[in-house]
Amino acid sequence: MVAAVAYPVAAATGLGAKVTAHALEHKTKILTTALPAETSYVYAPDGKTVLTMFYEEYRQYTKLADISPSMQQAIVAAEDNRFYQHRGVDPKGVARAFVANARSSGVSQGASTLTMQYVRMALRDSAKTPKEVQEATQQTSLRKVREMRMALDLEKEMSKEQILERYLNSAYFGHRAYGIYAASEIFFSKPPKDLTPVEAATLAGLVKSPSEYDPATSDQKDATGRRNYVLDRMTQLGYLSPDEATRAKTEPIRLKLSYPPNDCASVPEKWNSWGFACDYLKNWWSAQPAFGENRLERMDKLRRGGYRIVLSMDPKIQEAAEENVGTKENTGSPFANGIVVSEPGTGRVKAMAVNRTYSLDLSENGPSSNPEAGPNVKANYPNTVAPLLGGGDLPGYQAGSTFKMFPMLAALNAGMPLSTSFNAPHRYRSEVYDGWAPSNASGAMSGNQTMWSGFGKSVNTYFVWLEEQVGADKAVRLAEQLGLRWRTDVDKEQASPAKVKKWGAFTLGVSDATPLEMANAYAAIAADGRYCEAIPVQAIYNRDGTPTTWKTASGIEREVAKPRCRQVVNADAARAATDAARCPTGDTPARGSCGGWSTADSVRGTVGRPVAGKTGTTDSTRSAWFVGYTPELAAASFISDPDNPFNAVGDGQSQIPIKAVAQTLRDALKGQPTRQFTPPSDRMVG
C-alpha cells in the first residue's frame, strides 16, 4: 500500500482544480457497475466437461455467500481492521500513518482502507488506455486523495458487504490468481466456501506482498510468519478465540497446488485432438464483430469476458473421425490425413480430426520435407498447432475434381437440366479459354456424357465445356457464396474481375481449399441450397448466464451462437446436384443414369444409406480428396503434405480420404433412421 504521507482526511473533500467533482462522480458510478476481468471456459457439448480456459488473469467471480466467513474475517483482519467502523476513509489510520511516516522520514506505514484499495483495483481493471492504468496505480499524493474522495462516495452507493465481495474478487494473491476463487483453487484445490481459518489467514496474508509471502516456495518461514500475524489480528477482533489461534499457529501450511489450464495447448491429453477445434474457435472468435472492432479487442474479450462457451463438436462423431484418420497411430507421416464433419442446415462443425498431435512442442519433429525450407525448419509432424483443417490463415490444398460441383451447381441454378449432354473427347481445346486443351484421366471417359455420368466418372472435358456454357465467373462467384476464400496470390489474381471469366482450370480444382470450407460448401447442397456459415459453437453465455447477443448491420439483435444461413441456390437445383453426386459413390440416382461406373463406388456399400459426394486428385496425385454427404452430415477428407505440396502422395493413397469419409459417416450415423434425398423435379431432369 502507498502511504498518505502528507494529506490529512480533510484533503479528500477539497481536491482542487485538477480533480473535478463531475469527473469523480462519473468514475464512482463506473465502479458500482464494473466487474473485474473473468476467465472464459470452453466446454464439451455436454456443457459440463471443461476442455480449457482462456484468461490473462485467472478469476471467477464469487458471491460473498459462497466465500467462507473465515476468509471474509481474515481479509478484514489483515488489511483493514476498522473496515466496519469507517465510511471509506479511516481518520485514525491516516493520522497514525502520517505520524509514523513523519518519524521515519519515509513511507513506513500505509493508510489505505479496503474500500480505497478496491477503488484502486477497480480503476486499474476498468482502464481502457495505458494512461488510465498509470493514473490508477502511480504512487502520487494526487492519486491517494482521489482514492479517498471516491472511497467516501462509493460507500454512499454500496454496502460494506458489496464492497467486501468486490474486493475479494479483485485482489491479487500471486501465481496468476486474481480473486479469491482462483486463489483458493490454485493454492488449496478447493472452492472458497470450504476454506478453513488457517487457509484463509494464509491467503489473506498474501495480498500485502504475494511474492514475499508466497507459501509455495521451499522456505515457508515468511509465509508462516505472515499467516500467524493475520491469525493474531483475527483474535484481537474476536473472530477467533486465543486457544483457536494458538492451535492454528502450530499447524504447518499444507498446500494442494493446482495449475488451471489456459488456451488450446492445455486441452487434456485424452481430448488432444479437440485442440484443433479449440484453435478453430479462437480464429472464428477473432473474426466476430460481436466481440469488438478488431482482432485485439475480440481476443481481449475472450480472455477477460467470463464467457461460457459450449463447442458444437459431437463426441460420437469426433471419435469416429479420429478412428478413421488414425489420430493416434499415423502421426509419423509427412502426409496429413484430416477430416471435417459439418451439419447441413446449421453449419455447426461436428468433428475435426487429423493424424497429428496438437502440441507446441516441436522438439521431436524432424526436418521439413520442403527442400527450400532450410535445415533448421521443423516438419509439421508428429506435433503441430498449425490449422491444417482450416479456419486459420493457411491456404489449404488443391482440391482437384471436388471443384466440379461448382460449375455444375451454377449451371443447374441457371436452369440447365441434368440431362445436358456433350460428346466429350479425350482432349478438348477451349476457344473460350484461349486454346487451353485439357484432357481426361482415361480414354474410357470419352463419349457422350450428361451431368450424372460426367460427374460420376469425373470427366474433365465435359466439365470444362459445361463451365464454358455457364461462365467461369458464375462458378467462381458461387463457390465464394458457399464459403470458399482465395488466399494465395495466384488464386486471388485468377478470381479477380479482370481474369475470372478466363479461369477455365477452376473446374479442375487448381485452387487451394480447406476441408472446413469444402465440408461446409457441400453441406449447403445437402440442405437444399441453404448455406450456413461454419460455426464451432452450439452456445455462448455471458458471465450472468444469458446468451451472448449482438446487433447486425440492420439493427437486429441475435444470438452469436445461432446459425447464420441464407439461400444461395434454389432448392431444386441443389437437389439435382445431389442426384448427380450420388453417381461417384456407387449410389443410384433418383432420376438418371451414372453411365456404368464411378470413381468411388465403394462408398454406398460402406455407408449403408443414400450418400452423395465427389473424389478429387491433382496432377501426379500430390493431394487426394473426397467430400461426401448424407441428408444429416457432410464430411471432407484430404491427404497431402502441408510442408511441401510437390511431395506427391501417390495413387496408392488416393483411397485413404474415400475410406475416411465413408467410414466416418457410417459410424456417426449408426443406429439412426435412414433418410432419403429429395429427388429433383422434372424440370431439372430435362
From TrEMBL:
Q: Does the keyword Protease apply?
A: yes
Q: Does the keyword Isomerase apply?
A: no
GO CC, sorted alphabetically, is: outer membrane-bounded periplasmic space
Q: Where is the Penicillin-binding protein transpeptidase domain?
A: 339-643
A single GO molecular-function term is: penicillin binding
Matching entries from InterPro entries are given as:
Beta-lactam/transpept-like (IPR012338), Glyco_trans_51 (IPR001264), Glycosyltr_51/Transpeptidase (IPR050396), Lysozyme-like_dom_sf (IPR023346), PBP_transglycosylase (IPR036950), PCN-bd_Tpept (IPR001460)
GO biological process, alphabetically ordered = cell wall organization; peptidoglycan biosynthetic process; proteolysis; regulation of cell shape
Where in this chain does the record put each Glycosyl transferase family domain? 50-234
Alphabetically list the UniProt keywords.
Answer: Carboxypeptidase, Cell shape, Cell wall biogenesis/degradation, Glycosyltransferase, Hydrolase, Multifunctional enzyme, Peptidoglycan synthesis, Protease, Transferase
Catalytic reaction annotation = Preferential cleavage: (Ac)2-L-Lys-D-Ala-|-D-Ala. Also transpeptidation of peptidyl-alanyl moieties that are N-acyl substituents of D-alanine; [GlcNAc-(1->4)-Mur2Ac(oyl-L-Ala-gamma-D-Glu-L-Lys-D-Ala-D-Ala)](n)-di-trans,octa-cis-undecaprenyl diphosphate + beta-D-GlcNAc-(1->4)-Mur2Ac(oyl-L-Ala-gamma-D-Glu-L-Lys-D-Ala-D-Ala)-di-trans,octa-cis-undecaprenyl diphosphate = [GlcNAc-(1->4)-Mur2Ac(oyl-L-Ala-gamma-D-Glu-L-Lys-D-Ala-D-Ala)](n+1)-di-trans,octa-cis-undecaprenyl diphosphate + di-trans,octa-cis-undecaprenyl diphosphate + H(+)
Which family does the UniProt entry place this protein in?
Answer: In the N-terminal section; belongs to the glycosyltransferase 51 family. In the C-terminal section; belongs to the transpeptidase family.
Which protein, by its recorded name, is this?
Membrane carboxypeptidase (Penicillin-binding protein)
Which organism does this sequence originate in? Micromonospora citrea
